[in-house]
Design the sequence.
């Protein structure tokens, strides 16, 4: 009988320990009456510069290259413009120089205004520091052109006119007509070194 009473006593102690532990852990996860359960949590994150504006233009293939795609410019509150090139129909593994020029695809100033990172497999990303899209508009008209390769830099393979509206935003471009493609397709650039 004593063994039976001892087992019951031990059982009661174990149950009380379990209940006490449950109450302790429940209380530690419950806000105190002085804490508001609706108080917002403050999460510190590293500051980022989300794009304040983003604009894009379509590339027109030149010299029967078949290379087309899109250039996207986005700027952030920190005066940084990011230029992304996304081309299709490009040669695999070939570094293709790209630049922002004054002028249009039809009347391109051969001297680059801003060199861009070479496009490889149709992709390129360049950051223009201390620049905004509005400041680029004031330098316009502008165009982005892509060369066949560093060795054949006198051959243009794609070009995109950056057309701004009165507010400084780039105007949406429709697909070019065959006449526009012919006008914007010089056979080669005769300027040395470009």
Sequence:
């Amino acid at each position: 009988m004593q063994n039976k009473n001892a087992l019951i006593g031990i059982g009661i102690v174990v149950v009380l320990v379990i209940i006490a532990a449950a109450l302790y852990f429940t209380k530690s996860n419950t806000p105190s009456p002085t804490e508001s359960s609706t108080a917002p949590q403050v999460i510190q994150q590293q500051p980022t510069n989300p794009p304040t504006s983003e604009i894009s233009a379509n590339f027109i293939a030149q010299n029967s290259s078949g290379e087309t795609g899109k250039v996207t410019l986005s700027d952030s509150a920190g005066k940084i413009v990011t230029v992304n090139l996304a081309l299709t129909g490009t040669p695999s593994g070939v570094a293709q120089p790209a630049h922002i020029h004054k002028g249009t695809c039809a009347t391109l100033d051969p001297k680059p205004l801003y060199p861009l990172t070479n496009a490889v497999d149709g992709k390129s990303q360049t950051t223009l520091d201390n620049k905004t899209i509005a400041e680029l508009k004031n330098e316009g008209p502008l165009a982005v052109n892509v060369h066949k390769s560093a060795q054949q830099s006198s051959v243009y393979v794609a070009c995109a006119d950056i057309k701004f509206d009165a507010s400084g935003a780039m105007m949406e471009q429709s697909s070019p007509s065959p006449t526009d493609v012919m006008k914007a397709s010089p056979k080669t650039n005769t300027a040395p070194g470009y």
Notes: DSSP finds three helices and eight strands in the chain.
